[in-house]
Protein backbone atom coordinates (compact mmCIF):
# COMPACT_ATOMS: atom_id res chain seq x y z
CA UNK A 1 0.00 0.00 0.00
CA UNK A 2 1.22 3.51 -0.79
CA UNK A 3 2.56 5.59 2.04
CA UNK A 4 -0.29 7.08 3.99
CA UNK A 5 -0.54 8.68 7.38
CA UNK A 6 -2.91 7.38 10.03
CA UNK A 7 -3.29 9.40 13.25
CA UNK A 8 -4.33 7.70 16.51
CA UNK A 9 -6.11 9.74 19.16
CA UNK A 10 -5.17 8.51 22.62
CA UNK A 11 -5.28 9.46 26.26
CA UNK A 12 -1.86 10.01 27.81
CA UNK A 13 -1.94 7.57 30.74
CA UNK A 14 0.72 4.84 30.56
CA UNK A 15 -1.93 2.18 29.81
CA UNK A 16 -3.63 4.26 27.09
CA UNK A 17 -0.26 4.96 25.47
CA UNK A 18 0.69 1.28 25.64
CA UNK A 19 -2.56 0.32 23.96
CA UNK A 20 -2.24 3.00 21.26
CA UNK A 21 1.35 1.92 20.57
CA UNK A 22 0.17 -1.68 20.39
CA UNK A 23 -2.47 -0.80 17.77
CA UNK A 24 0.12 1.29 15.88
CA UNK A 25 2.53 -1.67 15.80
CA UNK A 26 -0.22 -4.04 14.64
CA UNK A 27 -1.19 -1.60 11.86
CA UNK A 28 2.42 -1.14 10.70
CA UNK A 29 2.90 -4.92 10.64
CA UNK A 30 -0.30 -5.48 8.66
CA UNK A 31 0.40 -2.63 6.23
CA UNK A 32 4.10 -2.13 5.44
CA UNK A 33 4.76 1.47 4.45
CA UNK A 34 1.84 2.84 6.46
CA UNK A 35 2.85 5.78 8.64
CA UNK A 36 1.17 5.77 12.05
CA UNK A 37 1.33 8.63 14.53
CA UNK A 38 -0.08 9.15 18.03
CA UNK A 39 -2.03 12.29 18.95
CA UNK A 40 -2.18 12.63 22.76
CA UNK A 41 -5.35 14.16 24.24
CA UNK A 42 -6.70 14.88 27.71
CA UNK A 43 -10.23 13.76 28.60
CA UNK A 44 -12.59 15.00 31.29
CA UNK A 45 -12.04 11.71 33.10
CA UNK A 46 -8.32 12.46 33.30
CA UNK A 47 -8.97 15.89 34.79
CA UNK A 48 -11.35 14.62 37.47
CA UNK A 49 -9.03 12.10 39.06
CA UNK A 50 -9.75 13.24 42.60
CA UNK A 51 -13.49 12.70 42.51
CA UNK A 52 -14.93 9.20 43.09
CA UNK A 53 -15.82 7.79 39.67
CA UNK A 54 -19.33 6.95 40.87
CA UNK A 55 -19.93 10.63 41.66
CA UNK A 56 -18.38 12.24 38.56
CA UNK A 57 -21.12 10.81 36.37
CA UNK A 58 -21.67 11.14 32.66
CA UNK A 59 -21.08 8.39 30.18
CA UNK A 60 -18.03 8.51 27.95
CA UNK A 61 -15.90 10.34 30.47
CA UNK A 62 -12.74 8.93 28.92
CA UNK A 63 -13.69 8.99 25.24
CA UNK A 64 -15.58 12.17 24.33
CA UNK A 65 -12.53 14.35 23.58
CA UNK A 66 -11.02 11.61 21.42
CA UNK A 67 -14.28 11.35 19.48
CA UNK A 68 -14.34 15.11 18.98
CA UNK A 69 -10.81 14.87 17.58
CA UNK A 70 -11.92 12.36 14.95
CA UNK A 71 -15.05 14.28 14.01
CA UNK A 72 -12.95 17.43 13.54
CA UNK A 73 -10.38 15.54 11.45
CA UNK A 74 -7.48 15.92 13.93
CA UNK A 75 -7.22 12.13 14.19
CA UNK A 76 -8.40 9.10 12.20
CA UNK A 77 -8.90 6.45 14.87
CA UNK A 78 -9.19 6.28 18.65
CA UNK A 79 -7.97 3.38 20.75
CA UNK A 80 -10.02 2.58 23.84
CA UNK A 81 -10.29 0.02 26.61
CA UNK A 82 -13.65 -1.53 25.69
CA UNK A 83 -14.54 -1.26 29.36
CA UNK A 84 -14.61 2.54 29.03
CA UNK A 85 -16.56 2.74 25.76
CA UNK A 86 -20.20 3.85 26.13
CA UNK A 87 -22.99 1.77 24.63
CA UNK A 88 -23.91 4.35 21.98
CA UNK A 89 -21.58 6.07 19.52
CA UNK A 90 -21.95 9.65 18.32
CA UNK A 91 -23.35 10.22 14.83
CA UNK A 92 -20.62 9.57 12.26
CA UNK A 93 -18.43 7.29 14.41
CA UNK A 94 -18.47 3.55 14.98
CA UNK A 95 -16.49 0.67 16.43
CA UNK A 96 -14.38 -0.68 13.56
CA UNK A 97 -12.33 -3.37 15.33
CA UNK A 98 -12.12 -5.26 18.60
CA UNK A 99 -8.72 -6.84 19.26
CA UNK A 100 -8.08 -10.23 20.83
CA UNK A 101 -8.79 -10.12 24.54
CA UNK A 102 -6.03 -10.09 27.14
CA UNK A 103 -6.72 -11.73 30.53
CA UNK A 104 -10.23 -10.45 31.41
CA UNK A 105 -10.03 -11.18 35.15
CA UNK A 106 -9.58 -8.96 38.18
CA UNK A 107 -6.37 -9.26 40.16
CA UNK A 108 -5.59 -8.87 43.86
CA UNK A 109 -2.36 -7.10 44.76
CA UNK A 110 -1.02 -7.13 48.29
CA UNK A 111 2.30 -7.03 50.07
CA UNK A 112 1.20 -8.85 53.22
CA UNK A 113 -1.34 -11.39 51.99
CA UNK A 114 -0.88 -14.07 49.36
CA UNK A 115 -4.53 -14.30 48.34
CA UNK A 116 -8.04 -13.08 49.08
CA UNK A 117 -8.75 -15.90 51.56
CA UNK A 118 -5.83 -14.71 53.75
CA UNK A 119 -7.16 -11.16 54.09
CA UNK A 120 -8.27 -10.28 57.66
CA UNK A 121 -11.98 -9.61 58.25
CA UNK A 122 -11.27 -5.89 58.67
CA UNK A 123 -8.92 -5.51 55.70
CA UNK A 124 -8.48 -2.09 54.07
CA UNK A 125 -9.00 -2.56 50.35
CA UNK A 126 -8.60 0.01 47.59
CA UNK A 127 -10.73 -0.16 44.48
CA UNK A 128 -12.52 2.29 42.23
CA UNK A 129 -15.54 0.49 40.86
CA UNK A 130 -18.89 -0.26 42.50
CA UNK A 131 -18.77 -3.60 40.68
CA UNK A 132 -15.61 -4.66 42.52
CA UNK A 133 -16.78 -3.09 45.77
CA UNK A 134 -20.04 -5.06 45.66
CA UNK A 135 -18.34 -8.40 45.07
CA UNK A 136 -15.59 -7.81 47.63
CA UNK A 137 -18.08 -6.74 50.33
CA UNK A 138 -20.22 -9.82 49.74
CA UNK A 139 -17.22 -12.01 50.58
CA UNK A 140 -15.64 -9.88 53.29
CA UNK A 141 -18.43 -7.81 54.90
CA UNK A 142 -16.16 -6.39 57.61
CA UNK A 143 -13.61 -4.88 55.25
CA UNK A 144 -13.27 -1.16 54.60
CA UNK A 145 -13.20 -0.06 50.99
CA UNK A 146 -11.30 3.02 49.84
CA UNK A 147 -11.84 4.83 46.57
CA UNK A 148 -8.79 4.30 44.41
CA UNK A 149 -8.68 6.42 41.27
CA UNK A 150 -5.82 7.43 39.02
CA UNK A 151 -3.70 5.51 36.57
CA UNK A 152 -2.32 2.08 37.39
CA UNK A 153 1.10 3.36 38.45
CA UNK A 154 -0.52 5.81 40.88
CA UNK A 155 -2.70 3.09 42.36
CA UNK A 156 0.25 0.75 42.90
CA UNK A 157 2.22 3.58 44.52
CA UNK A 158 -0.60 4.15 47.03
CA UNK A 159 -0.55 0.46 47.94
CA UNK A 160 3.23 0.61 48.30
CA UNK A 161 2.87 3.62 50.61
CA UNK A 162 0.87 1.43 52.99
CA UNK A 163 -2.55 3.00 52.53
CA UNK A 164 -4.24 -0.38 52.00
CA UNK A 165 -3.82 -4.07 52.79
CA UNK A 166 -4.71 -4.90 49.20
CA UNK A 167 -6.03 -3.40 46.00
CA UNK A 168 -8.00 -4.92 43.12
CA UNK A 169 -7.19 -3.98 39.51
CA UNK A 170 -7.72 -5.48 36.07
CA UNK A 171 -5.11 -8.16 35.28
CA UNK A 172 -4.98 -6.93 31.66
CA UNK A 173 -3.67 -3.47 32.52
CA UNK A 174 -1.08 -4.89 34.92
CA UNK A 175 0.18 -7.39 32.36
CA UNK A 176 0.36 -4.79 29.60
CA UNK A 177 2.45 -2.46 31.74
CA UNK A 178 4.78 -5.22 32.94
CA UNK A 179 3.43 -5.48 36.50
CA UNK A 180 2.37 -9.12 36.18
CA UNK A 181 4.68 -10.24 38.98
CA UNK A 182 2.86 -7.93 41.38
CA UNK A 183 -0.34 -9.97 41.11
CA UNK A 184 -0.90 -11.96 44.31
CA UNK A 185 -3.99 -13.75 43.06
CA UNK A 186 -5.96 -13.65 39.84
CA UNK A 187 -9.61 -13.77 40.87
CA UNK A 188 -11.85 -16.28 39.12
CA UNK A 189 -15.03 -15.06 37.42
CA UNK A 190 -16.97 -16.85 40.20
CA UNK A 191 -15.17 -14.70 42.76
CA UNK A 192 -15.11 -11.38 40.88
CA UNK A 193 -17.16 -11.31 37.70
CA UNK A 194 -15.30 -8.95 35.34
CA UNK A 195 -16.58 -5.68 33.89
CA UNK A 196 -18.24 -5.58 30.51
CA UNK A 197 -15.44 -5.40 27.92
CA UNK A 198 -12.62 -5.82 30.43
CA UNK A 199 -9.33 -6.84 28.83
CA UNK A 200 -10.37 -5.98 25.27
CA UNK A 201 -9.12 -3.06 23.18
CA UNK A 202 -11.49 -1.39 20.71
CA UNK A 203 -10.76 0.90 17.81
CA UNK A 204 -13.24 3.59 16.82
CA UNK A 205 -13.24 5.56 13.57
CA UNK A 206 -15.42 7.60 11.21
CA UNK A 207 -18.12 5.29 9.78
CA UNK A 208 -17.72 6.68 6.26
CA UNK A 209 -13.90 6.55 6.19
CA UNK A 210 -13.64 3.48 3.91
CA UNK A 211 -9.85 3.50 3.77
CA UNK A 212 -9.34 3.55 7.54
CA UNK A 213 -12.03 0.91 8.04
CA UNK A 214 -10.24 -1.36 5.56
CA UNK A 215 -6.87 -0.80 7.29
CA UNK A 216 -8.40 -1.92 10.61
CA UNK A 217 -9.94 -5.12 9.30
CA UNK A 218 -6.93 -7.41 9.97
CA UNK A 219 -6.91 -6.31 13.64
CA UNK A 220 -10.47 -7.44 14.29
CA UNK A 221 -10.82 -10.65 16.34
CA UNK A 222 -14.33 -12.08 15.83
CA UNK A 223 -14.34 -14.47 18.85
CA UNK A 224 -13.50 -11.57 21.18
CA UNK A 225 -16.09 -9.40 19.44
CA UNK A 226 -18.87 -11.98 20.00
CA UNK A 227 -18.03 -12.05 23.71
CA UNK A 228 -17.73 -8.30 24.17
CA UNK A 229 -20.80 -7.50 22.05
CA UNK A 230 -22.89 -9.99 24.05
CA UNK A 231 -21.74 -8.28 27.27
CA UNK A 232 -22.53 -4.88 25.81
CA UNK A 233 -25.99 -5.98 24.62
CA UNK A 234 -26.71 -7.03 28.22
CA UNK A 235 -25.49 -3.68 29.50
CA UNK A 236 -27.59 -1.74 26.97
CA UNK A 237 -30.75 -3.56 28.04
CA UNK A 238 -29.92 -2.79 31.69
CA UNK A 239 -29.18 0.82 30.75
CA UNK A 240 -25.93 0.56 32.71
CA UNK A 241 -22.99 2.93 32.75
CA UNK A 242 -19.64 2.44 34.44
CA UNK A 243 -21.06 3.96 37.63
CA UNK A 244 -23.28 1.01 38.56
CA UNK A 245 -22.46 -2.37 40.13
CA UNK A 246 -23.01 -4.42 36.96
CA UNK A 247 -20.69 -7.20 35.82
CA UNK A 248 -20.89 -9.14 32.57
CA UNK A 249 -18.55 -11.73 31.20
CA UNK A 250 -18.86 -13.94 28.11
CA UNK A 251 -16.66 -16.86 27.16
CA UNK A 252 -16.51 -18.90 23.98
CA UNK A 253 -16.19 -22.66 24.40
CA UNK A 254 -16.16 -24.30 20.98
CA UNK A 255 -19.45 -23.35 19.38
CA UNK A 256 -21.04 -22.17 22.60
CA UNK A 257 -21.05 -18.61 23.84
CA UNK A 258 -21.72 -18.45 27.59
CA UNK A 259 -22.66 -15.15 29.21
CA UNK A 260 -22.79 -14.51 32.94
CA UNK A 261 -24.27 -11.32 34.40
CA UNK A 262 -24.42 -9.83 37.89
CA UNK A 263 -26.11 -6.85 39.54
CA UNK A 264 -25.83 -6.02 43.22
CA UNK A 265 -25.88 -3.29 45.84
CA UNK A 266 -22.63 -1.40 46.48
CA UNK A 267 -22.63 -2.80 50.07
CA UNK A 268 -22.52 -6.35 48.72
CA UNK A 269 -26.10 -7.21 49.59
CA UNK A 270 -28.76 -8.56 47.24
CA UNK A 271 -26.47 -9.88 44.55
CA UNK A 272 -28.42 -11.18 41.56
CA UNK A 273 -26.79 -13.52 39.05
CA UNK A 274 -27.97 -14.90 35.73
CA UNK A 275 -26.41 -16.82 32.89
CA UNK A 276 -27.29 -18.31 29.52
CA UNK A 277 -25.59 -19.88 26.52
CA UNK A 278 -26.18 -19.60 22.79
CA UNK A 279 -24.53 -19.96 19.40
CA UNK A 280 -22.00 -17.11 19.01
CA UNK A 281 -23.95 -15.63 16.09
CA UNK A 282 -26.78 -14.91 18.55
CA UNK A 283 -24.59 -12.68 20.78
CA UNK A 284 -27.09 -9.81 20.78
CA UNK A 285 -30.07 -11.96 21.76
CA UNK A 286 -27.94 -13.70 24.40
CA UNK A 287 -27.06 -10.38 26.02
CA UNK A 288 -30.69 -9.32 26.08
CA UNK A 289 -31.76 -12.68 27.50
CA UNK A 290 -29.36 -12.48 30.43
CA UNK A 291 -30.41 -8.88 31.05
CA UNK A 292 -34.08 -9.92 31.10
CA UNK A 293 -33.28 -12.70 33.57
CA UNK A 294 -31.51 -10.19 35.84
CA UNK A 295 -34.40 -7.71 35.57
CA UNK A 296 -36.90 -10.50 36.31
CA UNK A 297 -35.06 -11.18 39.59
CA UNK A 298 -35.19 -7.56 40.70
CA UNK A 299 -32.15 -5.92 39.10
CA UNK A 300 -34.32 -2.97 38.02
CA UNK A 301 -35.09 -2.21 41.68
CA UNK A 302 -31.39 -2.09 42.56
CA UNK A 303 -30.43 0.00 39.54
CA UNK A 304 -33.30 2.45 40.05
CA UNK A 305 -32.24 2.99 43.66
CA UNK A 306 -28.62 3.62 42.64
CA UNK A 307 -29.57 6.07 39.88
CA UNK A 308 -31.92 7.90 42.24
CA UNK A 309 -29.23 8.34 44.91
CA UNK A 310 -27.82 11.89 45.14
N1 LIG B 1 -11.32 1.99 34.25
C1 LIG B 1 -9.94 2.11 33.95
C2 LIG B 1 -9.43 0.95 33.17
N2 LIG B 1 -9.84 0.76 31.91
C3 LIG B 1 -9.26 -0.40 31.45
C4 LIG B 1 -8.47 -0.91 32.46
C5 LIG B 1 -7.71 -2.17 32.41
C6 LIG B 1 -7.45 -2.77 31.06
C7 LIG B 1 -8.63 -3.41 30.41
O1 LIG B 1 -9.66 -3.71 31.03
O2 LIG B 1 -8.53 -3.64 29.18
C8 LIG B 1 -8.55 -0.05 33.56
C9 LIG B 1 -7.83 -0.17 34.85
C10 LIG B 1 -8.44 -1.15 35.82
O3 LIG B 1 -9.67 -1.33 35.87
O4 LIG B 1 -7.69 -1.72 36.60
From TrEMBL:
S-(dipyrrolylmethanemethyl)cysteine: modified positions: 242
PROSITE patterns documented for this protein: PORPHOBILINOGEN_DEAM (PS00533)
Enzyme Commission (EC) number: 2.5.1.61
Residue ranges constituting the Porphobilinogen deaminase C-terminal domain according to the UniProt record: 226-295
Cofactors that this protein relies on: dipyrromethane
Note describing how the cofactor binds: Binds 1 dipyrromethane group covalently.
Catalytic activity reported: 4 porphobilinogen + H2O = hydroxymethylbilane + 4 NH4(+)
Pfam families membership: Porphobil_deam, Porphobil_deamC
Gene3D superfamilies linked to this entry: Periplasmic binding protein-like II, Porphobilinogen deaminase, C-terminal domain
GO MF annotation list: hydroxymethylbilane synthase activity
Record bears the keyword Transferase: yes
Complex and partners: Monomer.
Similarity field: Belongs to the HMBS family.
Name this polypeptide is given: Porphobilinogen deaminase
Native source organism of the sequence: Methylococcus capsulatus
Amino acid sequence: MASHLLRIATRKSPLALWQAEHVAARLRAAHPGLQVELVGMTTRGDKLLDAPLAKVGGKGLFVKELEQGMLEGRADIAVHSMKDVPVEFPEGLHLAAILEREDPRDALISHRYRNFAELPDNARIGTSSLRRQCQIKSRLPGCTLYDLRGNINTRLARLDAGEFDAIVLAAAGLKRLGFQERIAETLTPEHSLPAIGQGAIGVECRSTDARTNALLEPLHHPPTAWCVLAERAMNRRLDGGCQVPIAGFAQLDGDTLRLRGLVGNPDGSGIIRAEASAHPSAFEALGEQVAEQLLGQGADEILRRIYAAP
